[in-house]
Amino acid sequence: MLSRRNFLNASGAILGASMVGRAEAATLPEAPIQTSAATQPPLAPPDGRPYNPVVTLNGWTLPWRMRDGWKEFHLIAEPVEREIAPGMKAHLWGYNGQSPGPTIECVEGDRVRIFVTNKLPEHTTIHWHGILLPSGMDGVGGLTQPQIPPGKTYVYEFQMKKSGTFMYHPHADEMVQMAMGMMGFFVVHPRDPSFMRVDRDFVFIINAYDIDPGAYVPKVATMTEFNLWTWNSRAFPGIATLPVRRGDRVRIRMGNLTMTNHPIHLHGYDFTVTGTDGGWVPPSARWPEVTADIPVGAMRAIEFTANEPGDWAFHCHKSHHTMNAMGHDVPTMIGVDHRGLAKRIVSLVPDYMVMGERGMADMGAMEMPLPDNTLPMMTGKGPFGPIEMGGMFTVVKVREGLARNDFRDPGWYRHPEGTVAREWS
Ligand SMILES: [Cu+2]
C-alpha cells in the first residue's frame, strides 16, 4: 500500500528538513491509496476498541489515526483505474485509488472525523447511507451543505449511535457519480465484541456498469440496460472466492447500489438474514432462505454455519446478471437450422460462424474474437470444464482446517470418492 504522506516524507528527507517540517505540520491525516484489485487481509484495529474486522472482496479497509479521542479518516474522491477482471480495465471515479472506495470500519460509540478531498473535475459530497447523524452531516449537496468544489477538502464529524452495516456515496450529480463507481462500505462494529460475533465477515457492494465492448468509460446516462454486473466493481472470473473454514460462523454483507434488485443465491446452505441497513434483525423475526433478494439502495447481511465442505456457487439468480457484455444483444437461434443460409453468408463474410441453434453453451468454450479490453460473455474454467458464467458469480469454498486468518483461495474442492454426479452405465 502506498501512502501519500509517507511518500512526501520520503521525498522530504531527500530535499531537506523544511519539507519534513511542512508534512509534519499538516493537519490532514494521511490518505493511503490502494492500486491493487486483490482482496487485502483484514485490518486488525491497532488502537481504539477491539473488534473482529471484515474482509472486503477485492477491496481493503481504510486505516485511520486517533487524535484527541476522534478516529480520523481521509477519503480522496478521484478518477481511478479499476481492473474489472483480467483482460478488462475501466476508467472510473472512486476513492483513494479504487472503486469502490475503501471500507470504513469503526465501533459503536466512536467519534469519527472524515476528511473528504475532492480531486474530481466537478463538485461532490458524501452521504452516509443509513447512519444516524446530525442533519448537517448527511451530505446532500445543496440541501444540507454546500457542494465540495474541486481541489477543496471538507470535514464530516459524527458519533456512531449504533452498530450495523452502512454505505457511503455522493449526493451530488448522483446519476453520473454513482454510474462512475463512487461508493463504499461503512461497517460499525458492536461495542460488545461477543454480540453478533462471527468467524468470517465478508462485505461487498453490488454495482453495475454500462461499458461498450472495447471502451473504458461507463455510459453515465444508462438507466436500466447495464451490461456489466459486478460485485465491488469486479465481474466473474475476477471476483475473489470466499474461503471459509469448516465450522466457521460466516456473515456476508451485501449492499445494492444498482438500479435493479438482485436475488443473491447461495448453494449448499440455508441461511438467515440477520441485518439490514436499518439494523440487526431480532432472532424472533428471522426465517430461513437460500436466496436473499437485495432491493435497490439496501443492504442485507446473511449468516450461516459452514458445516458442509465443498465448492458452493454463490451468484445473482437473474441469469442475465451472470453474463458479461456482448451477451445482451444476441438473437435467439434455438431450433433454427440456418446452415444453408450460413453457406451463402460465408461466401460474403468468410469468418461468419453458425452459433446458437443448439443453445449458447458452445460459447463458453469458444475463443471468439473480441475487441480489446472486452470480457467474454461467459467464461471461467472449473475442474470439470468451462463454467459458462460471467458477471455476479463466485464460489464459497468451505474447507477443513484453514487457518483463522487465511483468506487465500484454497484451490478446487477434492470430492470424496463416489460423491460426484456421473454418467449412468
Ligand atoms: Cu442481479
Helices, strands, pairings?
Elements: E1 2-3, H1 4-15, H2 17-25, E2 32-33, E3 55-56, E4 65-67, E5 70-85, E6 88-95, E7 104-107, E8 111-118, E9 127-129, E10 153-159, E11 164-169, H3 174-179, E12 184-189, E13 200-209, E14 228-231, E15 242-245, E16 249-256, E17 262-266, E18 271-276, E19 279-280, E20 288-289, E21 291-294, E22 298-305, E23 310-316, H4 339-346, H5 362-365, E24 379-382, E25 385-389, E26 393-399
Parallel strand pairs: 3-13, 5-8, 7-12, 13-16, 15-26
Antiparallel strand pairs: 1-2, 4-5, 5-6, 8-10, 9-11, 11-12, 13-14, 16-22, 17-21, 17-23, 18-19, 18-20, 18-22, 23-26, 24-25
Bound molecules: copper (II) ion.
Residues 229, 262, 316, 318, 321, 392 line the site of copper (II) ion.
Explain what the structure shows:
It is a single chain. 9% of the residues lie in helices and 34% in strands. The longest helix is centred in the N-terminal third of the chain and has 12 residues, at 4-15. Strand 24 and strand 25 form a beta hairpin. With 425 residues, the chain is mostly beta strands. Strands 3, 13, 14, 16, 18, 19, 20 and 22 form an eight-stranded mixed β-sheet that branches. It is built from five helices and 26 strands. Among the domains are: 1-30, no CATH class; 39-197, Cupredoxins -  blue copper proteins (Immunoglobulin-like, Sandwich). Bound molecules: copper (II) ion. Copper (II) ion binds at residues 229, 262, 316, 318, 321, 392.
